[in-house]
UniProtKB/TrEMBL annotation, chain A:
It holds the Pfam family PhnJ. Catalyzes the breakage of the C-P bond in alpha-D-ribose 1-methylphosphonate 5-phosphate (PRPn) forming alpha-D-ribose. It comes from Paeniroseomonas aquatica. It catalyses: alpha-D-ribose 1-methylphosphonate 5-phosphate + AH2 + S-adenosyl-L-methionine = alpha-D-ribose 1,2-cyclic phosphate 5-phosphate + methane + 5'-deoxyadenosine + L-methionine + A + H(+). The keyword S-adenosyl-L-methionine applies. InterPro entries: PhnJ. This is Alpha-D-ribose 1-methylphosphonate 5-phosphate C-P lyase. Its EC number is 4.7.1.1. Belongs to the PhnJ family. Keywords: 4Fe-4S, Iron, Iron-sulfur, Lyase, Metal-binding, S-adenosyl-L-methionine.
Automatic annotation (TrEMBL), chain B:
The keyword Lyase applies. SUPFAM superfamilies: PhnH-like (SSF159709). GO terms for molecular function: lyase activity. The gene is phnH. NCBIfam families: PhnH_redo (TIGR03292). Keywords: Lyase. It comes from the Bacteria. It comes from Paeniroseomonas aquatica. It holds the Pfam family PhnH. This is Phosphonate C-P lyase system protein PhnH. InterPro entries: PhnH-like_sp (IPR038058), Phosphonate_metab_PhnH (IPR008772).
């Protein structure tokens, strides 16, 4: 118990041990969804309970935690989760990608490349990449067992036939280690290439479905595509209005009540750091 | 069941169980994520012979009433594990979630390798070896390894590399390995390919 009367990391030791065992098996079988039983977290589903359960089971006093929601450190969701962990662990928190040892994220991968030794924890609303195509869990389990992903290839091919391209902007399915079809969680397809052979460990926690999966460092993560229709990560063809980046993923934001709009980086730390470097250079 | 309340004749477990289990878990996670790299544990229990401190720490961190443990370590170690980890001990290697081998390792084909649909329901072997040395011995490749890692595990029987190749060949089924010596450990998940360097 901490001085405040919580278990360190909120979860009791039995729950942490169960989740820790699931995490190790997830790392040993890259891309495979491992079920875990767990007590309920003190937040409603949709607030990242799966990611929180994973972070709570791995975090220690030596860690520095960063939490982002759609790339931003300052949204209600990110602030709540960061405060929660500060309260139940006392660990240091940061908004700097480079300073964090654990980054919990909802729906983005930071623009600053992650390094060896860092852990990226994704909040996952739906872990099963095939759920829209095959609602029966017993069937999807069988497909994963046989690596039978024909259904997904047919879906992508139909997209191409109908729209001329694959009509998936978020949660674009990937093949991990050449074996398991995996949902990257609803990150923009733009972020998919960052997952491939990433030096950091990637852990995924789905709270409602109670599944954990993982991508070890330096592991192949390939976005599904076809030879004549290769995967293309797309971003808005614009520069960030604040830092002028042409490499980062952009959000379109409304700036006034006249319908004025501009593009800004979704990653607030990346954008802020670039702006302060520009000011320093001037 | 705390370190402050040892049962008569038993050496203590972790002095501070919550932070010790967390730091040992992170060493295990790093070991499993970066196969073959040696991790040194900082918080160790006082385990009875023949248990190596790192092997005892790994079991204390991961095993509990839900995970049957098989071991060849003898009655003193069994009593210590039962008390500090609270795990049931089983005589059948196929019935164990964790196998803790201090002498020659069990046949890799015996433990539970999981099923094609549930490969995570496989056993983890904690094997004590005479010594672990980086930069020599096997050449390792696979997930978690940028190019190659080298690891020498002293004291494994001849034929281990062939048995490991057979374990990898049944992926996604298979067992995962934690090699322990003294206060250090290294892991070989089932995805790691191992070549004997000549
Ligand atoms: Zn910007």
């Amino acid at each position: 118990m901490t001085a405040l009367g919580y278990n360190f990391g909120y979860l009791d030791e039995n729950t942490k041990r169960m989740i820790r065992r699931a995490i190790l098996k997830a790392v040993a079988i890259p891309g495979h969804q491992v079920p875990f039983g767990a007590r309920e977290m003190p937040l409603p589903y949709g607030w990242g309970t799966g990611g929180i359960a994973v972070t709570a089971s791995i975090i220690g006093t030596a860690d520095t935690l960063k939490v982002i929601d759609q790339g931003a450190d300052d949204t209600t969701n990110a602030v709540s989760i960061r405060r929660f962990f500060a309260k139940v662990t006392g660990v240091a928190t940061t908004e700097r990608t480079g300073e964090a040892s654990i980054i919990q994220t909802r729906h983005r991968i930071p623009e600053t490349p992650l390094r060896q030794g860092q852990i990226l924890v994704y909040q996952v609303p739906m872990p099963e990449p095939l759920f829209r195509l095959e609602p029966r869990l017993a069937e999807t389990r069988r497909m994963h067992a046989l690596a039978d992903y024909g259904l997904m290839h047919v879906k992508l091919y139909e997209d191409i036939a109908r729209h001329g391209h694959v009509a998936i902007s978020y949660g674009y399915p990937v093949l991990v280690g050449g074996r398991y079809l995996m949902s990257p969680s609803p990150i923009p397809a733009f972020d998919n290439p960052k997952m491939d052979r990433m030096p950091a460990l990637q852990l995924f926690g789905a709270g409602r479905e109670k599944r954990i999966y993982a991508v070890p460092p330096y592991t192949s993560v390939r976005s599904l595509d076809f030879e004549d229709h290769p995967f293309v990560p797309v971003r808005a063809d614009a520069a960030c209005a604040l830092c002028q980046s042409r490499e980062s993923y952009l959000d379109e934001v409304v700036v006034d009540d006249q319908g004025g709009r501009m593009f800004v980086c979704s990653d607030t730390d990346y954008c802020g750091t670039r702006q302060s470097h520009r000011e320093a250079a001037e | 069941m705390t370190a402050a309340d040892p049962s008569p004749g038993l050496t203590p477990g972790f002095a501070a169980p919550v932070p010790a289990a967390q730091s040992c878990f992170r060493a295990l996670l790093e070991a499993m994520s970066r196969p073959g790299l040696i991790q040194t544990l900082t918080a160790l229990p006082e385990a009875p012979a023949p248990l190596a401190p790192a092997a005892a720490a790994a079991i204390l961190t991961l095993a509990d009433a839900d995970t049957p443990v098989w071991t060849d370590a003898g009655p003193a170690a069994e009593a210590w594990l039962r008390f500090h980890a609270g795990c049931p001990l089983v005589a059948d290697p196929a019935a164990a979630s964790f196998l803790l081998a201090t002498a020659s390792p069990p046949d890799l084909a015996l433990p539970d390798a999981g099923t094609e649909e549930e490969p995570h329901r496989s056993a983890t072997l904690v094997l004590q070896v005479a010594a672990l040395e980086a930069g020599a011995g096997w050449t390792l490749s696979g997930p978690g390894i940028e190019t190659t890692h080298r690891l020498h595990a002293a004291g494994l029987p001849a034929g281990f590399a062939a048995a490991w190749a057979a374990n990898a060949a049944r992926f996604p089924r298979g067992v995962d390995l934690v090699l322990c010596a003294g206060d250090s450990l290294a892991a070989l998940p089932r995805t790691t390919r191992l070549e004997e360097t000549r």
